[in-house]
């Protein structure tokens, strides 16, 4: 194992900034260093690693294979150190420079992310929040265990031990049709719906798919002739065709106002879809993470109240 004796560990901060900005000048600005000092640090890094690490290209500094290989380990080590120092000092949102990564695969994830980001900036102007709104991968629990993902907002709770699932609000499902659709109306029956064609989203892994879709509704859409990747694509398709599409109830207002769609209640008992915040219990005593959890909970409940999905917000535990 290579010894770090004699190596200036500040160089790891320079490496991280160079990797993330792909620019000597921007990396220096982030760290409060001159361009000359940053270039000198890069030269020392190259000597220490016996690799160029970054190559100049028209689009910026391109990392070498070695840089790509070591960056995750360096980033994780620095994040762990930042958390440890912050925990020792206590967490002050006004001065903290911590970074958090949040996965929000909920279909309204981009909207929720912007709301959380704006509220976070108002309280903690130097804290950086990064969001991933893709459909949550099965490796998310592992990412939360290792600390590279701080929390997730999902409609599928984590089943592994030592994870905390906190219900934020309850979403639902509706069916949408374009304005002027020749047969669509708000109170369509199962018999009427069975005569229509649907656009539907790609299935998630079977063990993570919403259980409500294994019932009558899934039977209705399983033979869809058009399958898209994400729910946000459904209104685009439905507004231009005679396809019907299933949407989360939280998207109904946008579908109605932005696209002029007909919103159809699914026949029978309302389909309820709990939305969860998910995080590893190892973060329970982390004051910064507690701030993050409260921020996400508060802002997403506020959005649910505005969407008519929640009558009154409650405090997170």
Automatic annotation (TrEMBL):
Domain spans labelled HTH lysR-type: 7-64
Disulfide bond found in the keyword field: no
PROSITE patterns: HTH_LYSR
Superkingdom field: Bacteria
Keyword annotations: DNA-binding, Transcription, Transcription regulation
This protein's record includes keyword ATP-binding: no
Pfam families: HTH_1, LysR_substrate
Annotated GO MF terms: DNA binding; DNA-binding transcription factor activity
InterPro entries per record: LysR-type_TF, LysR_HTH_N, LysR_subst-bd, WH-like_DNA-bd_sf, WH_DNA-bd_sf, YidZ_PBP2
Family: Belongs to the LysR transcriptional regulatory family.
Name listed for the protein in its UniProt record: LysR family transcriptional regulator
